Amino acid sequence: MLQRQLGHQGLTVSAIGLGCMGMSDFYGSSDQHNNLRVLAEALALGVSFWDSADMYGLGSNEALIGQFFASHPGSRQRVQLATKFGIVRAADGSFVGVNGRPDYVKQACDASLKRLGVEQIDLYYQHRVDPQVPIEETVGAMAELVTAGKVNYIGLSEASSATIERAHRVHPLSAVQSEYSLWTRDIEAQVLPTCQRLGIGLVPYSPLGRGFLTGAIRQRSDLAADDWRLQAPRFAAEHFDHNLQLVDQLTTMAASKGCTQAQLALAWLLAQDVAIAPIPGTRSMTRLAENAAAAHISLTPDDLAVLDQHLKSSDIIGERYPEAASALLLADTPAL
Ligand SMILES: NC(=O)c1ccc[n+]([C@@H]2O[C@H](COP(=O)([O-])OP(=O)(O)OC[C@H]3O[C@@H](n4cnc5c(N)ncnc54)[C@H](OP(=O)(O)O)[C@@H]3O)[C@@H](O)[C@H]2O)c1
């Protein structure tokens, strides 16, 4: 597996990572025994940049990774482990709010370390910026976690360009995690150029458009009744077919490159910058290997231009999140 450097602080990760969220939440049921096998296979393939968050499965996603480490001696040292704090949920899973207060940051980190069963988190992100708390205060607390040896590198998720700049002045960010894919290119306007200018790595989440860009989801009924995507505007009944028609334009291009649509979507991301490492999520051994192989697909400038013509993200209909969650995207915080 090829490696990529994120930031200038020493964080090196596998070019293709593994998003673990779907193993515990949001995308229907999954089998824990199978998930542990997928994690083992990921390590075997060198897909060692793993992504979790304390809110995924109300902690059970971190606990799953902790269970894996405990049952695979020596595995912890081979993983670049990323997790996040800041989205608070009630015991029934409902959304309570965001919290970026310094005392909460430290409490959340200790809880994550415990569930993961590790002494250090490699990359610790604020999951959503807290609009009530100046970013300097939150990042100040994250910097103290680095000093305490509990965290190696820090990052933000879904932060605005201005917030990233302010945060980076308090403590260097190694990575920003934002939604970025062929059908979501919002960050190209400001966030990506800011990261490039400041030398911060970019970790695209939902790089396969939550599965839609792969062409594997053909109709809403392909998703389980409790699948979160059924609430996402882009998957809404009135938008689904229109969006699918656009995404189906990728079929020919993938065939001409001798790859799958999923691989094309990942190769496109890798071609945007050397400091980009996407984290596709999967619970399937076959798809894991397919996604890992995308690291070796190179796209020419002509390929990239054709892709731009084929799939214009501006033609996609529907916001990426339901309205309430949208308010927290690419957010700012009050001045210190
Ligand atoms: N920072 C944030 O706010 C945020 C938000 C969302 C996600 N994330 C992180 O980003 C990671 C990835 O995002 P995501 O899981 O939302 O979306 P994604 O990676 O774009 O897509 C995942 C979906 O695609 C399917 N899939 C994976 N590989 C495939 C392939 N080769 N062919 C066909 N289908 C394939 C998966 O199904 P199977 O599992 O059944 O294979 C799953 O339904 C998450 O796991 C999470 O760690 C972060």
Task: List its salient traits.
binds NADP nicotinamide-adenine-dinucleotide phosphate, TIM Barrel, seven-stranded parallel β-sheet, 12 helices, alpha/beta, single chain
User: How would the global form be characterised?
Assistant: globular
Uncertain stretches of 5 or more adjacent residues: none
Give the total of domains: 1
Gyration radius, in Å: 19 Å
Helical percentage: 25-40%
CATH level 1 name = Alpha Beta
The assigned structural class equals alpha/beta
CATH homologous superfamily (4th level) name: NADP-dependent oxidoreductase domain
- The fraction of residues in strands falls at 5-15%
Total number of beta strands: 11
Bound molecules: NADP nicotinamide-adenine-dinucleotide phosphate
What value does the average pLDDT take? 96
Would you give an account of this structure?
The protein is of the alpha/beta class. It has a single domain (3-228, 272-297), classed as TIM Barrel (Alpha-Beta Barrel). Helix content is 37%, strand content 15%. The protein contains twelve helices and eleven strands. It has helices at 32-45, 60-71, 102-116, 135-147, 161-170, 191-198, 237-247, 250-257, 261-270, 285-293, 301-310, 323-326, and strands spanning 3-6, 11-14, 18-19, 49-51, 80-85, 87-89, 95-98, 121-126, 151-157, 175-179, 201-205. The strands form three sheets. The chain has a seven-stranded parallel sheet. A hairpin with a 4-residue loop joins β1 (3-6) and β2. It is globular, with a radius of gyration of 19 Å. The termini are far apart. The relative contact order is 0.16. The mean pLDDT is 96. The protein binds NADP nicotinamide-adenine-dinucleotide phosphate. Residues 19-22, 27, 51, 127, 157-158, 177, 205-211, 214, 216, 262, 279-284, 287, 290-291 line the site of NADP nicotinamide-adenine-dinucleotide phosphate. NADP nicotinamide-adenine-dinucleotide phosphate binds next to α10.
